[in-house]
User: Fold these one by one.
Assistant:
Number 1:
Amino acid sequence: MNESSIFQTITATALIGTQRQAFTPISTDGKLGQLLASVDTTNQESALLSTVAIATMYQQAGQLPITNHQLPIPQPCELEDLPRCGDRINYYLSLMMNGEQTQLLPELLDRLAALGQRVHETSLPSLLDLGKRQSDLREAIAKVLGKRGQWLAAQNPEWNYVASEDESVWETGSKAARLMWLSQSRRQEPNQARQLLESTWKQESASDRTAFLESFSDNLSMADEPFLEALLDDRSKEVRRITVDLLTCLPESRFCQRAIARVQDLIKLQRDGNQPYFTVDLPEAHTLEMLRDGIEAKSNDHQNNNQIGDRASWLLKMLTSTPLSFWNQHLVMSTEDLVKAANHSQSDRLLLQGWIAAAQKTGNLVWLQALAEFSQEESVNRIAGQPLADSLILDFQQQAAEIHLLKNPDLAFSNLFKSLLFRHKTIWNEEVSAIVLEVIITTLDRFITTSQLISNYWGISEFIRDAAKYIAPSLIPAAKEQALAVSQRLQDLTLDSENKKEHREWEYMQTTLHKSIKQFVDLLQIRQEMLESII
């Protein structure tokens, strides 16, 4: 009986079960037959398992190594040029790769890269496997692999997302490796990255074109405009959508100039005594040029759960694509005065909606600050409810506006608030960290003082847990101290209420908030210990 027949017999016996059919020793020739014949059948189940063990061992011991003289021998790995991280850091790295406090892994990898260190050799396979599963970690992983890690990644097709520094990866690499290389090139040599993408654009699939184009939000400039203008005719709807978003962030582009030409005669500044306000005319007809610029003939927008008309939808899209700086220049008014005029009781609210959408799409925090500060509640809610686009550039004015927005109590814990803080997943500076800490402690203090239910307490609890990952290292001790103090006050708090339903809900909220604070403190403690061990 050959090996295949032996395993078929064993499988059949196992499926039927030794209680229904007695197991008899398998007979075959040679040494294997002698071993199988010696199996004690007194215990049927034990006999079956012994037979499986013998047959499996025999098969493995008899295997010959695979040889293929046609395959080239790989070049040996280059000598390492980076120092290896310490054993303590390798301990934390192992914990994180095994699922404990994984959210701290980006900070650990970034800190190692900043210090010019590489991970321990024993961590390379697990770390490369993790990058295969989590694309957002790939760039951070690539920076700490060292020469051996780069060499190892090249030997396994599943790890070839690690991009080579050689641009040949654009021709030979996997999609993941090409995307990683393109993203890095956009930050370092944006023109070279664009030219390479242009050279292969027609051969790329629609999904690949979409993924590659999204990287253009880094170092976007007018040098990209001719390429992007042509993509308004791309056959992929998703590519055209991303192209419109990118061109909206280039005020001098032909796309934005067409938007200006469409709206400048439709928005009129009027006066009620000394108070300016705006009137709005809707566009009369839809054109092919509008369709090319992403303005659909039929409205698919909903405002306050009611579908707006097609012509209003056209104007809203036009306003969203019009550079906000145009209004300052065209009307010779400050942003603050423009927003105040748009909030006049006689002004058409469509203009404010368009400005809010334009500010959010282009990441214009100066305009968002004015819109949030001088608009009515409905508009502030709309601002708070939408996250920012990825085109945000923080110059001096933008940074100042960001601080004002984070300090605005009407925006605390909103989508905009969280978008400002979490969009880049980087450690906050001391000023931003202090603001976030104050918002958290103030909110919890108010709950403790008033004992009033918080409608969005679950979202606040989630925010508190996430915030621990980004607090500036220098503020970790103070953050732990303040959080522990408010945690104790929260734990000691009791509600004097005869309403059982309200009491249960209040206790559940108290427990949820207390648990999130504990997780906040625990994570800060682990971060502190981890960072202190990096030398």
Number 2:
Amino acid sequence: MNIDIIQVTIILSAVVVLFVTGWTRMDIIPLLIPAALVITGLVAAEEVFLGFSSSAVITVASLFVITTGLVRTGVVNRVADSLNHLTGKSNLRLMLAGTALPGMVAGFIIVTATVLFFIPTLIRMAYQAGVSRSRLLLPLVSSCLLGANLTLIGASHNLVANSLVENSLGYGFSLFEFMPLGILLLLVSVIYNVFLGWRLLPAGELDNSKPDLGKTNLVKTYGLDDRLWEIWVQDQSPAVGKSIIEIGLGERFGLCVVAVVRSDKQLAVEHKDLRIQSGDILLVLGREDMISDLVKKEGLFLAGHPREHKRLPLSTAELVEVVVPPRSPVIGKTLTELNFREKTGLSGIALWREGSPRRTDVGSVALKEGDGLLLFGDRSKTRSFKPGKSFRWLNAPRKEESPPELRSFGPWAVLILVLVIFSAAMNWLPVAVAAVTGASAMVMIGILKPREIYASIEWNVIILIGCLYPLGLALYNSGASALLAENLLIISNHNPQVVLAVIALISILLTQPLHNVAAAVIMTPVALNAAQVLGSNPKTFVMAVIIGASAAFMMPTGHPMSLLVQKPGNYQLKDYLKYGAGLGLLVLLIIIIVVPLIWPFYAG
């Protein structure tokens, strides 16, 4: 064993230990790799950052931009919302739609974005169907991870492995070369989740009970921790069809309805003809015991406190805060006099004055300079509200994901994605060039502004790929991957089927404590060396790495999306292992049996 192999083994071991133990932030670890490779002389200083110019990095960054364009024009949200029409109250259809459709989307849009935009949809559907969200979220992630293998561009580690193959062999995989195997993997994932997977996950908290949504800073600041509640009206609720007076919210329960949100519109609660409908969201002021009594007697759903600036919104409403600036034209006037609710669609919930909150009769208080005003309304209203000279933002709403003015660009965004895929599939353009052109088109036709390009890219993923990339080259150039491949061949007695199985198993195991990009970087050189010694088809063994690294659902650390669902799904490590072991075994069997049929070991 030469000194280069020893050095690269030490660096690799240190990276694995840091990833597994969490002694330092996961996004810092990759930044340490270039320095280690240059100091040891494994990679020249002028070459250590070549990974950032690789086709994998360029393609992934461009796909983030294209995905943002699809989101900003409302395309992704419309696809997610279509799930509601597919499922109804059927648990079977809920699981089918919650795994099959997101899995298909993940084949063409980066996995991270796909999961992020399907999570709130599935949580809302779980509430409506009375199903624990714990039994939906991990199946969503696993189906997206496996469905990403429908195309080359579905997952970042696909592109990284392909880039390493191109550098080594001079050729790589075509855009749709994965599709037959990707379809099988997604189908297996859907069947597994529908019939078995959800049973292995915790029943958790049923969605007709109060979940722990957390209390927002604004709720605490204004002293509304036990006063302000968001209630959803369910289909079978006795309140459906009744007016607020008929329900007796004030007389029977001692509560005050502040606002009613229906289909993205805030309704005036004072209107005598207002009748409660299924799906309405009520913002109610009152004590928690009174709220609980109302929910129990009227068959309503208590969602908890309204939230602002959260990544996974569960309703269409939010809280924001403004302040009255000097020389404001609203000074001395009340919200009622300003017809504030009628003009803006927002309700004044509480007032902050002279260091303390005021929570009652806010509409009749004459405003003063420096007053803080807590507002509640539908997100379309809060995000279209223009403070002008009258107010200034203290806690502004999160940026609208799909502004109304951009929704007409939806067909153009879809056309751009289709052209990117088609031009790459027909070999008119390399995948990276097609993706960059598509990202540029998003800006040229006005879907995104130039500065939004940089905000749309997940830079932690780009840095991870760019910094890990030279580690893969060091493994290959030092002979470490060849040494590991030789040992695998000795153990397997040069049987290609056994070598394939071992490479797949190691890839599956490595991706659990590490990121799947790291697993692909480590194992792709090993797969290439094994194929070279055997005189076999290198694609066969590289596919074992790619598919094995896709099975990143047996630990929360395998992929950022596996970690993201841990808290909302209330998962523990044992839940990941119990759920993922069976599906991981199926993935391993598919690699061993099916991969050699599509990519034979030997030509002819």
Number 3:
Amino acid sequence: MTRRIRIFDTTLRDGEQAPRCSMNLGEKVEVARQLEKLGVDVMEAGFPAASPGDLAAVKAVAEAVRSSTVAALCRASRGDIDAGLEALKNAAHPRIHTFIATSPIHMEYKLKMTPDEVLERSIDSVAYARKYCGEVEYSAEDAFRSDPDFVCKVFGEVIKAGATILNIPDTVGYALPVEFGPFVSYIKSHTPGIEKAIISVHCHNDLGLAVANTIAAVQAGADQIECTINGLGERAGNASLEELVMILMTRREYLGIECGIVTPQIYATSRLVSKVTGVRVQPNKAVVGENAFAHEAGIHQHGVLANRATYEIMTPESVGFPSNRMVLGKHSGKHAFDERLKDLGFEPANLAVDELFARFKVLADKKKTVSDRDIEALVVGSTKTVPDTWMLDRWVINSGSTLSSTCTIKLKNKGGEFREEVAVGDGPIDAAFTAIDRIIGKDLDLDSFELGAVTGGEDAQGEATVKVSLNGLQWNGRGLSTDIVEASILAYIAAINSMEWELSAAHGGAARAETTRVAATKESSGV
């Protein structure tokens, strides 16, 4: 008999805590809606007590999502739980996820608490949360490096207090699969009242074993697995949702386990998360990497042409990976374009198709053929989560090997006013960014700048991703154009628009500027 397990996605919380992976409120809601479309059972929307901005984001996600459970992470304190309850008050299916460390090293050096104090705090926080929320998850942070008998004792008591899900994290990614599976089995067989709760696991990838450890835990009896899109997360990240789900699907006959994920939505979800965080997926990444279904060696190509099963254990279509079944160009009609959107996993009814088709036609005039990657980039790039404070009107670059690079930039603000500046820089892009800084009246720090091609070929679209910061706060931007300078300018403006929107008092930016997620807060949320 096939056993069904729950998929708990923490991209919006643990994934967003990864360095340089922050999302604004609109982006979090956009990702949350895609996660719901993907079919995750639970999504952890954030850490409400970390800042007013986090609380607002969790609240917005809770209001937007109707089918998936929305969880809020809270330390084992009534103040944190109150913040979580406030954020989830409009959720269709709320869950409080409270945690405290149980390992000797964490209790002594981080918490400065005795085991008895940790036990007492655990019981109190779970009992308090359960009074106001019907679903309470309890995590024993750094459980794998804890005394297993102490974990069993704590779990037994929090079950009595009302915990419905018990999470066993390998917080620092220290476990080996041959250890972690038996560890989970021991907890399951030695915890009193365990039959009243669901066992969950949360594995980090410090040694590259997060997915393997999670599968070992599932085989040992865990019924919920916690993971992130593209494996994002603190340090080396978390167990990758796409890898775990496709292991369960591909090896279903052997494992006897299934989940409710809509696998053709995997690729679109991966690309969306990559877009909003600005973190590219490595080409050889399992399941969603650009090379995942590519075959270059002659013997491999021959085998795949004869029978795809020779070298493919899953099909590109099963994860929504685009394939060039139809060549689109400047003579293609809107019907063909609509059908291609559906083939790529997008729902035309949810998109501004007329605007997209117009942009497609402009692109088709510049390229002989428009690939699936081009169309996907158009769709992902067209989704705006913040209003345009600034818009590009025109730009001119003067650059060469024997003269300084200069850029003239003209922008239009939301009030309809045009502003123009000229700047000199160390190359055309630096000059452009400097001119934009002068227009907006802020000196931004450019934390990272990445430039890549959407497809191969001389006429490929350039895709630029930037991360800018001001006073310790950071924003992402993405730009797309057949001209790499223009793509870079559009990415910089997109990051500025995100900054202007978040820092505006109307959207709670002042609160975020006043209360940022400092390193100490991040450490305290490291389940």
Number 4:
Amino acid sequence: MLTQIDISQLATIQKLHLEIEIGTTVITGETGAGKSILIDAIELALGSRATGDMVRTGEEKADINLSFDLSKLIEAKSWLERHDLNVESNECIIRRTIHKDGRSRSYINGTPSTLQLLRSLSDLLINIHGQHEHQALFKQDTQRDMLDKYAGNNLLIRQVSLLSQQWHTLSNKISALLKSHKESDSRSEFLKFQLLELEELQLQQNEFQNLDIEHKQLANSEELLHNLNLALHNISDDENHNAISRLNHSVDAIETLQSVNPKIQTWVDNLKSCIIQLSDTESELRHFLENFEIDPERLKWVEERIGTLFDMARKHKVAPDELFALQEKFAAELTAIDTSEERLNELHKNLQIVENDYLTSATKLSTSRKKAAKKLTQEITQVIHELALPHGQFHVNFFTTDIAPYSPHGLEKIIFEIAMNIGQPLQALAKVASGGELSRISLAIHMATAEQHTIPSLIFDEVDVGISGSTAEIVGKLLRRLGHTHQLLCITHLPQVAAQGQQHLLVEKHHEKHATYTNVRKLNAEEKVKELARLLGGIQITQKTIEHAREMLEKNVS
């Protein structure tokens, strides 16, 4: 739920801090006081279009911060986790900064965010109803989700979505296999020819690397023998000056002095270690020299073999050391082609199973939706009649045309339709022209689906347009009742609606030194009475009006 609103330098607001409570909060104020500025600020923070003229005159930028408690918002927390946006606590802070040159920046939990991401998250946090740009209730996806939640279709939705995903995966595999199957005959002949040519070479893994090393040795064999013999001579063969003999003499020279300095033992050990390593090297050199011989015929063969590998590599446009891997690749592809018919049959069998399972689950989903739609239609129509729309008719329509095959959403599109007057055809909810009517219809829908609704914070603007008297009181009571399960903010002009709020915010405007200031404050019990009296009596507020206002409040205390 929304817990705090902080605004600075926005339009006529200089600085404002509000703590929003759970339940129904009503917002009232004089005409022109700027009651909608709170709603505008919330919409701006959640990603609506911003312009530089929204910044307070004389200031560089406006700043809006919204704080939400996510302790019961599982979907919103999951969304933040998926986007790695810091959900260590149950708090989510959204910030929007608007500069006077029109630039703006948005942040989610301190991390810069695009408006697209911000709008995606906002749909999980708050729902605004009235004459505003973004109304989730217009969206077919929202309408479908509301019906499914009302019907308790969560398990069926998951099953249909999973089967749809499996169907598309299998279909893509079959399409790819069929496409390659058309070219398989010519490709198979090509691969067989290439493999035969490569197999005749009797390639070995790492062969080229080993040949390269051997060629270097054979091509430089005389220099190699000379230098290795010289090294062996210096290590041990020179009777007077070999390295091992000199190291042994060094050990003898200092070993007798171990008692003089403790470090000497370390030096002795190091020298002995050098002698051991040098002796091992000597043995390896002798072994190599004993088995090494100058072989011009072998050198010639190695050079010819390297040339052959280079020629084949150029033909296939690969490096010589990649020929063995290329042969394996060709062999694997040929095996795949040879077994493609078998794999295609297996994929078709699996696809048929998935199609049957999908149709079974999707049909169950459709049946459940239609059953729930009848009940939902009756409940919403009943509430609409109570809200001074006596001829209004609500209807849930199911469209089966233009549905993508094996859609993750089932076999039909869900569209909420409404007719406002007798003889008027049903039309999509998005085409309802009146903002006041739309607000009341939205209220009716949310009342009917209150227990299933997962968006906890709802804002109603102009919910009382075109109504008065007993109808206004009904609207107020419905809002108060909805406030038992949701957090509501409602802008109203009617005392019958305002009297039902658990919290009451008053919007005030005043002028000072050629500047205009808007302030919003929470009213205490006595202030509520005075504000209701103003709404009831206008300019002249009598004692009778105050008593009437007090009576209205006392009657609505729950």
